[in-house]
Amino acid sequence: MAQLLRRLDDEIYIEYNTFGLDGTDLPTWGSPTDEIYHFVAAVRLESWDAEPGPADASWTPVSSTTFVAESGVVAIVSMMDGRGHDFLIGPPRFEYGVDMYLRAPEPGDGHATGKCEETWLLRFWPIRDVFDPITHAAPFSYIARGVLYYSIDLEPEQLVQPPARREVPVPVSAVTDWASLRVDPDLDTFDGWLRRLRRMAENRDVTVHELLRAAGIDIEDGVDLTPASCTPPQARAGRFKDPLIDRYYAEQAQRGSLSGKNLSEDQLREYTDGERIAKELCRADTRTFSVPVEGRGALYVPPGVSRRVWRWEDDMLGGELMDDGLTVDRQILARNPWTRQILVSGIVTVLRRDHNRRGCDDTVWYVVRDAEPHEAARTLCAEATWEEDPERRQVLDEVAREKLLDLRATYRSRER
C-alpha cells in the first residue's frame, strides 16, 4: 500500500492562469477554471512512495501526467517571479507520476488568509530510475580559456561529443534504496529540543524554568512548556505571514542559532527550505560535514545531487580523517610537505548551502554527506563514460589554439 512521505501547504499568486513546476521537464500548466486569470491559489504538495489511491471526495480530479525530475526538488513558479516553497519529492533523475486535484477553498487553506480562490492538490510518486550518464551527466563543453573569455560561440568540433560506447553498465536503483523515499523521522522537533533541555537542567541541578530564565526568557515556574512560552517575545510566532518561515524563525530563535544575524525574509525562506530538505535527505544518525565546491557550476548545486569534490585536509593525525567524512571512493591526489596537508577527492551528496562559511570568487561551501552506494554508482558511471581520450584532447587543444591566435590577431588589428 502506498505511504505518504511528506506534505507541504503553500500558496502562490498565479498570473494569466499560467504556472510551471520548476525542477521538472513538464510544460506550463493552467487552472481548469478558465474564467479567472489572476488569483491566489492554495497548493498542497504530497510525496508518496508509490502511486496513491484517489483523494477523498472533497477533491475533483483534474489531470495526471509523468515527468523526469532534475534533482528531486520541485517548486510551483508563476510567470512574474512568483515562487512557492521548495519541496522534496524523491531522488534525482527519476520518472515520476503526478495527479492534480481541485476544490473550492476551505477554512485554513492559503495560510488562513481567506484570499485564496482555488485550492490544488499535487500528489507525486516515483515510477523508475531513468538516470543516463550521456543525457544527465555530460561534462562542460570543451573550450579554451581565451576563447571563453571573448564569448565566442562554440564550434561543433569544440563540443563534448557523446562517447561511442558506455564504459560501464548504467546503474539502476530501486525506490527502496533512497533515503528521500522513506517516512520522515522525528528530527529537530520542539519535543526533541525539550528533552535535551531537561537533561541539561538535570546536569546543572536546576529546573527547566530556571534554565530558561538564565537564557533570558521571561517564564514563571509552573508555566506550560510550549514553543511560545520557551521563546523570547521578539522571536515568537506571528512575525511573518508565511507560516513555514514564521515557524522556522521561532524554532531557530528559541535555540539561539539566529543570534546576531539580520536576515531578510527571502534569506529566511532559503534557510527554511534548505534545512528542511537537508534533513529529509538523511537517514537517522547520518554524519554531515562541509566541503568547498569550486569552479563552474559551484554557485548552485541542487540538494540531493551527488558529485565528486576536492578539498585540502590536515595530514597531521597519523591518517585519521579530519571529520570522518569524504570516505566514498577516497583518493589522495597530492601532498604538501610544507603545510602537512593532502588534497583529497571523494563522492558526496549535497544537502544545502553552508550559511556559516563564506566562500570567495567561484568557491561555495556546502553541507554534504558521504554518498550512499547507489548514489556513488551514478558518479562513477558518469566518470567512466566520459573519460577523455588523450589523442582527441590533443586535437581539440590544437583547434582551440588556432582559434585563439586568430582572435588575438583580430583584436590587435582593431586596436591599430
Could you explain how this protein is built, in words?
Strand 5 (73-78) and strand 6 (87-88) form a beta hairpin. The chain folds into four domains: 4-131, Competence, DNA-entry nuclease inhibitor, ComJ (Substrate Binding Domain Of DNAk, Chain A, domain 1, Sandwich), CATH 2.60.34.30; 134-169 and 389-415; 190-280, no CATH class; 287-385, no CATH class. The chain is 24% helix and 26% strand. Helix 5 (243-255) crosses helix 6 (265-280). The chain is of the alpha+beta class and 416 residues long. The model has no long low-confidence stretch (mean pLDDT 82).
Number of domains: 4
Distance between the termini: 76 Å
> Unreliable runs, pLDDT <50, ≥5 residues?
none
Shape: globular
Largest sheet: 5 strands, mixed
Radius of gyration from the alpha-carbon trace, in angstroms = 25 Å
Per the CATH scheme, the topology name of the largest domain is Substrate Binding Domain Of DNAk, Chain A, domain 1
What percent of the residues sit in helical stretches (DSSP H or I)?
Answer: 10-25%
Number of helices: 8
CATH homologous superfamily caption of the largest domain: Competence, DNA-entry nuclease inhibitor, ComJ
Class from secondary-structure proportions: alpha+beta
Q: Using the coordinates above, name the CATH class of the largest domain.
A: Mainly Beta
Strand portion: 25-35%
CATH architecture of the largest domain: Sandwich
Average the pLDDT over all residues and give the rounded result. Answer: 82
Number of strands: 13
Task: Write out the strand line-up for the largest beta sheet, numbering strands in chain order.
Answer: 1-3-8-7-4
The ordered H/E elements are EEEEEEEEHHHHHHEEEEEHH
